[in-house]
């Protein structure tokens, strides 16, 4: 029987992500029951055994809707019937976490996924972000005034606390995941938060991106995602240069040599300063462009000013041709 093209597209994306994946443990699909993660889970259940890999599923119950526990158990029952193993429902508490509701839910979700991955010694966790999600991420980063790192969007693979997080569907349109579910007879769950205009991403999804498609054509979604890939490659190259430059800029007496920093291109120097600030103990989430700009001013706009203050109460001074704490 011929496989529907959307089903084939999702399976191919999963095969590419899993081929050559190191580690003997299972892969775990993070599945909310929405179309994207449900199509991903179905494809993984098909592909992983054919690659000699066990595949399981984790569904996180955020407890944010009255029927969330029932929804989670429905997803888990389907996963067991589909042959996924292990299958786990993880309830989390969102209230009381720092940040807004989106950030708090995301933090709780990822903490649960990482804990499950460690418990099952998983080779990786598969996430259902699509090409449309990537385009939305780029637009949100652009609205925040993010630099190249923010505009690089979500990476197809990253390690978080030693756990590989894989996003196989970043080149797959959301329409394909919905069509794949329909072709397989699967009924996705529609998360009401995805349509809630209180959330910036929901507004981008419902209003901004469709407006861009109407004005510029359907290709704008793929072009935004491609921009993220190109910037990610450039950012990785600059990060490698910055890592080498940071080592070369270290002064024998401690701190960083101003002369070595002045000689660097601005794009490399600011990365060096950002990395060094993190080494000093500045919390990454609180370290912003203005902090790095203040450090850079000690190098390129020196007129005897006082120290630059990093998050966490860390003062950095220029003294004797060095930046030092």
Verbal overview:
- The structure is a single chain.
- The protein has 325 residues and is of the alpha/beta class.
- 53% of the residues lie in helices and 13% in strands.
- It is built from twelve helices and ten strands.
- The strands form two sheets. A six-stranded mixed β-sheet has the order 3-2-1-4-6-5, sandwiched between helices. It has a four-stranded antiparallel β-sheet with strand order 7-10-9-8.
- Strand 8 and strand 9 form a beta hairpin.
- Helix 1 crosses helix 7.
- The longest helix is centred in the last third of the chain and has 31 residues.
- The chain starts with a helix and ends with a strand.
Write the layout of secondary structure elements.
Elements: H1 5-18, E1 27-30, H2 35-50, E2 55-61, H3 68-81, E3 87-91, H4 101-119, E4 124-126, H5 131-144, H6 148-151, E5 157-160, E6 163-166, H7 174-184, H8 200-216, H9 219-249, E7 256-257, H10 258-262, H11 266-280, H12 289-300, E8 308-310, E9 314-319, E10 322-324
Parallel strand pairs: 1-2, 1-4, 2-3, 4-6
Antiparallel strand pairs: 5-6, 7-10, 8-9, 9-10
**Biggest β-sheet: count, sense, barrel?**
6 strands, mixed
**In what range is the share of β-strand residues?**
5-15%
Strand order of the largest sheet: 3-2-1-4-6-5
The percentage helix is 40-55%
What class would the helix/strand composition place it in? alpha/beta
Order of helices and strands: HEHEHEHEHHEEHHHEHHHEEE
**What's the gyration radius in Å?**
23 Å
The best one-word shape is elongated
**Distance linking N and C termini:** 68 Å
Find the count of extended strands (DSSP E, 2+ residues).
10
Average pLDDT, all residues: 92
Per DSSP, the total helix count is 12
Contiguous low-pLDDT stretches (5 residues minimum) are none
